[in-house]
Amino acid sequence: MMKLILVAAVALTPLMAKDNEPAQRLDAAAAVFSEVMGAPDKGIPQEMLEHAHCIVIVPDLKTGAFIVGGKYGKGVLSCRNKVGPGWSAPGTVRIEGGSVGFQIGGSSTDLIMLVMNERGADKLLSSKFTLGAEGSVAAGPVGRTATAQTDAQMHADILSWSRSQGLFAGLALEGATLRQDLDDNATIYGKKLENRAIVTQRRRVPAAAAKLINMLNKYSAREEKSGSGQ
Description:
Elements: H1 2-19, H2 21-38, H3 46-51, E1 54-62, E2 71-79, E3 91-97, E4 108-115, H4 118-124, E5 128-130, E6 137-139, H5 151-155, E7 158-164, E8 167-170, E9 176-180, H6 182-189, H7 195-200, H8 210-219
Parallel strand pairs: 6-7
Antiparallel strand pairs: 1-2, 1-4, 2-3, 3-9, 4-7, 5-9, 7-8
């Protein structure tokens, strides 16, 4: 009997670990954002964050995944609440594909994307969209101020950054496809909710996401004005 119990426990362990992945990813995303924003003069410019409509964080991507046609990884997104200050409960995304030759060095890489206008936010909340083709993307400026912004950065729908082996820099993510991850949303919320429904229906922030949303609110909790754009 004891042997059967041990066998069952071993069999269930991978399933339990898999079911816990979205919660672990939320913790990792909170850690990435906190570390990036806490780095003096090397993080995302505060004024960029203040103007952002949504944020996407994809933590701990392995180098081996960055190949043409390969799966890049999974991440989380949050958008400004339309009514009142603060950020929405998070949805989940997968990043796939990419332009030929796209590769990032280092043992692991973190990605952060800021969606800078309503058009980009609408694309982000669709079931899938391709960066560069359906929404313009540019490498984001680094530092506490955005004085080094180029014209492309000022007019891009999305600004993106990468962090690998301690180096934080802007990254152009042309050709990558973002898809909502209904299975991970189901793990977090108990049913397969679409990202648009999570973000727009003022859903209660789950306990697993509290750390991330608290960090976003700490650094930028301004109130979103209805109908605002870039």
